[in-house]
Amino acid sequence: PQFASVDRAQLETLAKHAEELDVPAGVELTHEGRHEGSVFIVVSGSIGIERGGRTVDTIGRGGFFGEIAAIDGGPRTATGFALEDTVVVAISPRQLNDVLDESSELRAMMMAAMEERLGRIDAEG
User: Fold this and answer.
1) How far apart are CA 90 and CA 22, in angstroms?
2) Rounded CA gap, 44 and 35, in Å?
3) pLDDT given at position 63
4) How many angstroms separate the Cα of 32 from the Cα of each of 42, 75, 80, 89, 117?
5) Which of 65, 72, 86, 96 has the least C-beta neighbours within 10 A?
6) 84 secondary structure, DSSP code
């Protein structure tokens, strides 16, 4: 649903740079405080988002996470882990930013989602 407003050609460009991963339940994909890699889009399953040792969000099918560190170049703001066996698509920060530079719709959607998520997480913590 978050990608519904994005031009199909721009989504196809993003998909060209993606790698699909099967993630068993319990595996961490991002680690709070670390300077690390990819942005993830959930294809199936669900991801728990933990901050300061407390679960603050859940990302389901069609959602994404890891974009904050990819966009601002800083450390991860939270740990993301598979709540169940999950399939995600991984995109490197460089590839994401290259596509965002070409797509104002995708950039606007990701920035709005990022701001909403940070506001919700900060209100929790």
Assistant:
1) 11
2) 26
3) 86
4) 19, 7, 8, 20, 15
5) 72
6) S
